[in-house]
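STRUCTURE REQUEST FORM
Protein name: Short-chain dehydrogenase
Source organism: candidate division LCP-89 bacterium B3_LCP
Requested output: C-alpha cells
Priority: standard
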Amino acid sequence: MDIKGKTVLVLGGWGLVGAAICRRLYEEKPGKIIVASLNKQEAEDACRVYSEEATDIEFTCESGDIFVREEFRYLHREAVLSDPHKRHRLMLDSVEKLSEEILTESTLYRIIEKHKPHLIIDCVNSATGLAYQDAFSGSARVIKEMDRARAEGELTDELQTEIERLLSCMPVPQLIRHIEILKATLSRFKVQSYLKIGTTGTGGMGLNIPYTHSEERPSRVLMAKSAMGGAQSLLLMLLGRTPIETAVSEIKPAAAIAWKSIGYGPITKGGNPIPIVDCPPENAVTLENTFDPKMPDQGLRTRRTLESVYIDTGENGTFSYGEFYALTSIGQMEFVTPEEIADYSLMEIKGASSGYDVISALDASVLGPTYRAGAMRDSALQIMRDLQKKHHTESVAFELLGPPRLSKLLYEVYLLQKVCGSLSAVVKSSPRELSESVEAYISKKQNIRSQILSIGIPILLSDGKSMLRGPEVKIPSSKVEDRFKISPEKIDDWANAGWIDLREKNFAQWQERLTEIKTEIDSLPSDETSSAYHWHKAYWGQGSDALDPGKIVAWVFVKKEGEVGGARIKR
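Status: completed
Returned output:
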C-alpha cells in the first residue's frame, strides 16, 4: 500500500509503540494522521509534539474509550457501572444481537465514519483493556451475594446489581462485539488495510510466568488477558478470510516493550507519588486471629515521597533497576524496542513480508526478544547504575511490575548483600546469624525500612508473630474479602508470596539457593570461554562472589520458580 497522501488512523497513538509508529510514518508522507488515545490530554500532547516534528503532515486528535458507545466515550468504566441506566445499556450493547443502532452508536464507528481513513494501525492493548475488568472477582461477588440472599430467603437489589455488573464486564462478549463492529465498519467505509499490534499477555512467557497479579500463579486475570489476546488473533484471522476489501494483519510482540525514558525522581502509582511511611520495631503488629491488609491508622507518615532511579516503559509501567534487570534477563521476558515494532508494521502495510504476521503464521510470527534490545540493554542498565551513584540511592523494587514476590525476593537479596557483602559469606553463616543480622540492620536503617514498607511489602520479624507494615500491604489480596483468618500455614503462604521474611527457615532456603549457584560457578572450568554456558563466571562478575539482586532473582525465577521453573523456552 502506498501511504503517501493517505489518511492514517493510529489507535493508541500516544503510547510507546503508537508513538514509534507515528514517527515511522513521517517518512511515508501521509496527508493526515489521526492520533487516538483513551485520554484527551494524551492525544492533544501527542498531536502537538508530532506536529512540531513533521510540519508537512496534518495531525488530528481523537480520544475516548473505543469499546463503548459514543454516549459513554469519556466516562470512566466505574461511572458507567455505578449508574443503573448506563450499566443496563452497557450490558445490552455487549450481549444483544448487533443492530444498526448499536453499530452506529459505537465510538469506534463514529471515529472511522468521521475521518474515513485509508489505513488503520491499532496499537491499543485490547486484551488488557477487556480482560482486566476482572470477571473473576465479579463472579465471586455474585456467588457471595447469592449465598446471602439464599440464606435470608430474598432476592435483593444488590444481587441484581452484581449480576448486571458481571454481565457488563465479561470480556468475550465485548471482544466479539468489537470484532463485529470492526468488520461492518471496515467493509462499509472500504478501509484498505487494518494492522493490529497484539499481545501474548505474558510477555512471551508461558503459564509458569513469575510475574502475575495476585497470589495465584499465574493469576486467572492474567490468563484472561492472554485468552483475549489469542481470541482476538483467531477472530482477526477469520476476518482476514472474510470477503471484504480490507487487508488484515497482526504484529504480536512476545517480549516486554521498552523503553521511553530513564531518570531519577518521584515514583508514582495511579498518577500520585508513593508516600514514604515507616513502622519502627516498637510499633510492630502482633499477628493473631485475623489479618487486615488495610490499616489506615497504622504506620508513621514521613511527609516524604518515594524517589529513585527508574526506567519508564510507557503503558507497561515504571520499573526499578532491579525489576528491569530481572524482567529483561535471559530466561525472563527480555524485551523488544517500540521502534522495531514500528519498522515491521510498516513492512507489512507496504506489502513486504516481515515474517511476523500472526494472521499468516500464528505460532511462528510472534516478535520475540531482539538483537537490538539485547545490545542496548547494557547501556540502559549502565545509565541506571550511573544515576544510582549520582543520587546516592539504590533502585531495588517499586512493586509496580508485580508480583509482590518479585519485590520480596529482590529486597531479601539486597538485605543479604548489605549484611554479608558476598555470596560466600551468606553460605558460611548460619540461618540464625543471618536472621539476627538482617533484623538488626532493618531496625537501624529507617530509610531502607521505609522504602520497603511504602511499596506495600511488610516485614515479618524473626519471631514469625510480629510484623512491620504500613497502612496497606499487597499480600494477601482480595477484591471480595476485607479480612483474612490467620494461621501458621497462611503466614507461610503470604510470606512466600510477598512478605520480607526474617525467619530462620527463609534464610535457610536462601542458603540452599546460593549454595547451588556457588556450586555451579565453581564447577565451571577456569579456562572455559565458549558460548556453552550462559551463567558463566564473567556473568556473575567480581570474582563470581557478588550478590546482585537482579541477577540472583532472575536465576531463581529461571530455575527454582515452581516445579518447572519460570524460564521462557521460545525466543
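Reviewer notes: DSSP finds 22 helices and 21 strands in the chain. The chain has two domains: 7-75+104-132+173-254+336-349, 261-331+375-516+545-559.
Form closed.
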